[in-house]
Amino acid sequence: MIFSRIKAFFYLLQFLLSVSVVVFLMWVFNESNRAIRRAWAKLQRICGLYSLELEGEFSDEANILLINHQSMLDIIVLEELHPKNLCWIAKAQIGKIPIIGKILSLPKMISVERESKHSLIKLLKDAEDRVKNGRVLAIFPEGTRSYSGKLLPFKGGAKIITEKLNLKVQPIVIIGTDILNVKKFSFKNGNIKVICLDTIDTSDKEWLENTRSKMQAVLDKERANLNA
């Protein structure tokens, strides 16, 4: 426990420093912001002393990813592994954090004001723009992190975006990113596994809930294997 807290402390210092450098580099070399983000994500793996495993393949057709959420490492590992320029859909509050918020605005990520009545219209407009420009949307349909091992109910935003813009959905299940626990201020060594599921047939009216069930089944199976 002491080691994991010491590691969390030094990782936090490194994270804040490296984010500042990344923001500066993206500001100066904005056309290369995807390469800069990927290099930064690789640095986080080296500093975090964790390994990565990829099962399956990212679909060339998919233009929106539905991802389970356990920690900020979810974003970092996908920034390293995914071959395309991801566009994260995040809480607007993150964009308001000094310096760190620029990591959303400079690469044109999408921020959402949940309380705003006009946020859905802006979200759809921004999402359509990013997809037209070859970006792949990435969203946590639970809306927040789950610490229980069970997926939280999926919010309706992902369904609305997908159906309004006629997007191709690929679910992504991530195992092991809970080695970083902000609440306990600890960061353990470990392996993180990213599992790419098949793209979803969205003609079924219950496709979002069915997708949640499939993702939960994969989570349960992986955790059972780890505990076997």
Profile the largest sheet.
Answer: 7 strands, mixed
Assign a percent range to the helix content: 40-55%
Strand and helix order? HHEEHEHHEHEHEEEEH
Low-confidence stretches: none
Question: Which class best fits the helix and strand makeup?
Answer: alpha/beta
Layout of SSEs?
Elements: H1 2-28, H2 33-48, E1 50-55, E2 64-67, H3 73-81, E3 86-91, H4 92-95, H5 102-105, E4 110-112, H6 119-132, E5 136-139, H7 157-165, E6 169-175, E7 180-181, E8 186-187, E9 190-196, H8 207-227
Parallel strand pairs: 1-9, 2-5, 2-6, 3-4, 3-5
Antiparallel strand pairs: 6-9, 7-8
GO molecular function, one term: 1-acylglycerol-3-phosphate O-acyltransferase activity
Pathway: Lipid metabolism
Domain Phospholipid/glycerol acyltransferase: 63-177
Q: Which features does this protein show?
A:
228 residues, alpha/beta, 7-stranded mixed β-sheet, two-stranded antiparallel ribbon, 8 helices, 9 strands, 1-acyl-sn-glycerol-3-phosphate acyltransferase
Tell me what the structure shows.
The protein is of the alpha/beta class and about 230 residues long. It has one domain. The protein is built from 8 helices and 9 strands. A 7-stranded mixed β-sheet has the order 1-9-6-2-5-3-4, with helices on both faces. It has a two-stranded antiparallel sheet with strand order 7-8. Strand 7 and strand 8 form a beta hairpin. Helix 1 packs antiparallel against helix 2, helix 2 packs across helix 3 and helix 6 crosses helix 7. The longest helix has 27 residues. It is globular and about 50 Å long. The model has no long low-confidence stretch (mean pLDDT about 90).
